Structures are given as C-alpha cells and as structure tokens.
Amino acid sequence: MNKPIVLRAYQNTNEAYANKCLLEDAGITVFLYDEYTPSTLPSPSSGTKIVVPEYQVEEALLILDQNFKENHPDLYSDEDTVRCPKCDSKRIFLMKNRLTLARLIFSITFFFFKDDRKRYQCRDCRNTWREF
Tens digits of per-residue pLDDT, 75-115? Predict the structure, then answer.
C-alpha cells in the first residue's frame, strides 16, 4: 500500500531539505509537509516533516541512519576504540586542535612542525588526553 508515513520531523528546514535530497538521490519518493511551519509558528510539536510511501520506509531509515553516523562519528564508538584512561568510559569524543599563539611560535621556530596526534575528552569525567 502507498500510505504516506512521516519519517522524521525537523525544526531546521535546511536539514529537512538536505535529507530530502539524500533520499531522492537514492531513488526514494519524498515529500515535505509543513515546511513553512517552523519559521512562522515555532513550537516543540511543529516542524518540517519528511514523508515517504509505506513500502520505502525501511530503506529510507537505513539511508538516514547511515548518513547520521557518517556525519557524527564521535557519537558512535566501537569496542575497539579508545577508552578513557581515567574512568575506562567509552563515551569519548575527538577534540578539534586549535592554533594557539604558543603553537604558532613553536611551529615557526621548528620549521612548521605539526602535532597530528588526536586529542580526546571523556564525556563522563571530562579527562582530556592525546593518543600516543
């Protein structure tokens, strides 16, 4: 049956359009409902809704979930990934390296030496460390 199913609702209309394009590229029929509601009537229950036919729901959910995991890898950590050395938590995220004045002076002095080690922070105990 081709019954329309609301897949997701977004407060950000641009995010809804981006996911609509992603699903259309995969050959899924997509409609947006209430696309002007978030800008005219902001409330927690309203939002732009992505609607797909019932027979394409599973495929659409797989595509959206995979896209979310690719765009937010710090939220998904496997068993083999880094753990917090202080509390052994798996809830960690990768911190962005910032260019500070001290790092800039050090880089210029030592021929643009760049420290590519990743910096992590534990979400539970807020411990920060670098990989070796």
Answer: 655 555 678 888 888 777 777 666 667 766 766 776 665 55
**Cα separation of 68 and 128, whole Å?**
25
- For the chain, first and last CA: distance in Å? 55
Quick one: CA dihedral 101, 107, 112, 118, positive or negative? Answer: negative
At 30, list the tokens: 């997509």
Cβ–Cβ < 8 Å for 64, 7: yes
Q: Which token pair is 72? A: 């937010």
Are 82 and 110 a contacting pair, CB within 8 Å? no
Amino acid letter at 90? K
Distance CA 59, CA 24 (A): 12
Closest by alpha carbon to 127, among 79, 95, 80?
A: 95
pTM of the model: 0.52
> What single-letter amino acid sits at 38?
P
